[in-house]
Amino acid sequence: MTDGPRAPDGAFEFTEAQKERFRALAGSVSFVGVCTMLFGAMGVLFALGAAYSGFAANGVGIAVGTALLLVMAWWTVSAGRSLSAIVSTRGRDIERLMEAVEQLRRLFGFARIAIIGVAVVVVVVAGAIVWCTIGAEKGGKCFF
Question: Residue 1: is its pLDDT beyond 60?
Fold first, then answer.
């Protein structure tokens, strides 16, 4: 990446071509964040509907998933705002970029934890199924 011009106070500034890339990225990130928030709003409605229909446990599960989805949406929208601010401000490009990186770090750090958690659950469930299948073939009992 080539050095951009310097602001009057000596701070780094991205070039207009670089800012155009940030503008496009900010639009995409913001769009995904807003859509994720809308999915979260739908999740709230589903949780309330499940609870109202007498499926309180399902409603709680949906509400927990929705809360996590809304947190992820917030981080995504915040990253989009910070990227958009790179384009619209002068003299604070690196600061705004680092704000966006921090929000994306949180988002992807959480996603990494969620993926590992899902993988662990899948392995445990698959192991239990195999264990019970082998045990049933040998006349044993399954633990569930």
Answer: no
